[in-house]
């Protein structure tokens, strides 16, 4: 691009910059509309509707899909989040420790659990833990297992977020607390971590959205009818009726939660941005 | 020049002996000996990088000395077995950047440390908080958050927070350096009040008029050593050492410094620029 364009001299194309932009925008719109029309015309809507949008089938799913499946999804997510948050804080503090082995352990943990697919962790928890500790039940039954599996994965991500949050709190805060007679641990708990949490609430809420979707992996643990969450519930009904409408309805239920949560995240981010000004 | 042994202060609140501090290869303090008597106000002046803030931070062990001893109220702070948290309760510290806790209201900034560290109950902590906010003239800001206060107000709250802990010694690390010029006066007035009340104070500052009027003793540091110390009028008005004169002439309005000093300063500047 020539840096001497002043808008005064006509260019070779004979178009002003504004006209060029309008033409470029017009082409983009045209391509998009053409693509939508092409998909719309070529897709077999009748068959699609037959397979995915049977109103009577959808009706049959209520109220169980809300009172049972959505409720379980929320319970799995929240229990996984709480366990993951607690573990994440511990791992983050280990990562920041002045004790070398703590830092290495935390680093290894984070690399392993961020590097593995969540599905493998679920299978590991479902199979390896009962094998390793025969006769001992994970407290909370399926809920405990899910909290463990989801939490193990989430902790690895949250630990890095929380570590960054703690490091974003100015060093003077710790110094002020120490000079007032706080011990290092007490200063962390009373002064630094509360401020770090303000910084990391938006990314942690994002993590909650991710966990909400990952809770669908519960179906690899094997659950009772009463313990089914949205994905398992939808899939069971779909195979039972040989129709995919339940999958679509289950998907809409996920969006019912994730879209408002996404909205909350953006609001929190905006508020955090204003607060630091 | 060392402090006069014929006329020792009644009790030594702070005593520093042979203090050395290095950051890596950089030796910031090269053997400091200093005493601050009970009720005495000592201002530490000197060019930036002279080690004066590091000295202050070694007194309450925010920096770990490399060598030497520090005593506060008779307790050896540098002893490996000392309960440093207990010692720090007796030492108030005020920072250049205020360091109020932004997630707490002004009152909570004052009460939380009292309750967590001193174990005071809610009522006693609130009483001490109100009392000390009144002393710094900010009672009406009790419910405000730090972000809504001016720099000068924040620094006065920081002083009140330190005072609420009932310290025997107060350390001030360039308390007015981050303030707009018109806000400096209020903070200095509070410090002057404390000095008048007999608080033992060690103040790192560039405010020469404050040092001259309030300090019992001025300590000039350069290159990690105490170059000279003594009566403020003499150290600031008629320094015995060339380095002190040089520093003061650069700090004060050049029009007020005599011509010789200015020329010396310029020569020294030139020399400093030539040397690698």
TrEMBL record, chain A:
Its main location: membrane. It holds the Pfam family BPD_transp_1. It comes from the Bacteria. InterPro entries: AA_ABC_transptr_permease_3TM, ArtM/GltK/GlnP/TcyL/YhdX-like, MetI-like, MetI-like_sf. GO terms for biological process: amino acid transport. SUPFAM superfamilies: MetI-like (SSF161098). The chain crosses the membrane at residues 27-46, 74-94, 115-134, 247-265. GO terms for molecular function: transmembrane transporter activity. Residues 70-265 form the ABC transmembrane type-1 domain. One of its GO terms (cellular component) is ATP-binding cassette (ABC) transporter complex. It is a multi-pass membrane protein. Keywords: Amino-acid transport, Cell membrane, Membrane, Transmembrane, Transmembrane helix, Transport. It is found in: Cell membrane. Gene3D superfamilies: MetI-like (1.10.3720.10). Belongs to the binding-protein-dependent transport system permease family. HisMQ subfamily. This is ABC transmembrane type-1 domain-containing protein. It comes from Streptomyces fructofermentans.
UniProtKB/TrEMBL annotation, chain B:
The keyword ATP-binding applies. Keywords: Amino-acid transport, ATP-binding, Cell membrane, Membrane, Nucleotide-binding, Transport. Residues 14-248 form the ABC transporter domain. Belongs to the ABC transporter superfamily. It holds the Pfam family ABC_tran. This is ABC-type polar-amino-acid transporter. It comes from Streptomyces fructofermentans. Transmembrane segments: none annotated.
């Amino acid at each position: 691009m020539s840096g001497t364009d002043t808008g005064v001299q006509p260019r070779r194309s004979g178009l002003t910059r504004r006209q060029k932009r309008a033409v470029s925008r017009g082409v983009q719109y045209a391509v998009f509309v053409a693509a939508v029309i092409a998909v719309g015309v070529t897709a077999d809507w009748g068959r699609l509707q037959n397979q995915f949008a049977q109103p009577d089938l959808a009706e049959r799913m209520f109220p169980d899909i809300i009172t049972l499946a959505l409720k379980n999804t929320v319970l799995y997510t929240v229990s996984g989040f709480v366990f993951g948050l607690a573990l994440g804080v511990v791992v983050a503090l280990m990562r920041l420790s002045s004790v070398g082995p703590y830092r290495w352990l935390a680093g290894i943990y984070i690399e392993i659990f961020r590097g593995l697919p969540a599905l493998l962790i679920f299978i590991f928890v479902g199979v390896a833990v009962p094998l390793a500790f025969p006769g001992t039940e994970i407290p909370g039954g399926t809920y405990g297992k899910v909290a463990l599996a989801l939490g193990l994965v989430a902790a690895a991500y949250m630990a890095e977020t929380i570590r960054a949050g703690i490091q974003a709190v100015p060093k003077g805060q710790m110094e002020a607390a120490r000079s007032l007679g706080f011990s290092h641990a007490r200063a962390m708990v009373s002064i630094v971590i509360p401020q770090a949490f303000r910084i990391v609430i938006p990314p942690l809420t994002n993590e909650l959205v991710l966990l909400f979707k990952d809770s669908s992996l519960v179906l690899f643990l094997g659950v009772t009818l009463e313990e089914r969450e949205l994905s398992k519930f939808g899939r069971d009904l779909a195979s039972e009726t040989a129709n995919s409408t339940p999958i679509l309805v289950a998907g809409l239920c996920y969006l019912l939660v994730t879209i408002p949560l996404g909205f909350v995240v953006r609001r929190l981010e905006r508020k955090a941005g204003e607060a630091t000004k | 020049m060392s402090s006069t042994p014929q006329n020792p202060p009644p009790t030594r609140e702070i005593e520093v002996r042979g203090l050395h501090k290095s950051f890596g290869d950089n030796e910031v303090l090269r053997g400091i000996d200093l005493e601050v008597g009970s009720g005495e106000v000592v201002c530490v002046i000197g060019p930036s990088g002279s080690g004066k803030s590091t000295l202050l931070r070694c007194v309450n062990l925010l920096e770990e000395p490399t060598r030497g001893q520090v005593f506060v109220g008779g307790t050896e702070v540098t002893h490996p077995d000392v309960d440093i948290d207990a010692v720090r309760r007796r030492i108030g510290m005020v920072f250049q950047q205020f360091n109020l806790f932004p997630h707490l209201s002004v009152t909570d900034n004052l009460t939380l440390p009292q309750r967590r560290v001193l174990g005071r109950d809610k009522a006693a902590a609130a009483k001490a908080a109100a009392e000390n906010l009144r002393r710094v003239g900010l009672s009406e800001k009790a419910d405000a958050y730090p972000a809504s206060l001016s720099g000068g107000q924040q620094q006065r709250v920081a002083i009140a927070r330190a005072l609420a802990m009932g310290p025997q010694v107060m350390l001030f690390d360039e308390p007015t350096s981050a303030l707009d010029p018109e806000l400096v006066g209020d903070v200095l007035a509070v410090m002057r009040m404390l000095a008048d009340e007999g608080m033992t104070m060690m103040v790192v500052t560039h405010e020469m008029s404050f040092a001259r009027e309030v300090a019992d003793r001025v300590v000039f540091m350069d290159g990690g050593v105490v170059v000279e110390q003594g009566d403020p009028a003499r150290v600031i008005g008629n320094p015995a050492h060339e380095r002190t004169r040089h520093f003061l002439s650069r700090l004060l309005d050049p029009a007020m410094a005599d011509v010789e000093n200015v020329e010396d300063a310029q020569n020294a500047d030139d020399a400093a620029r030539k040397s690698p």
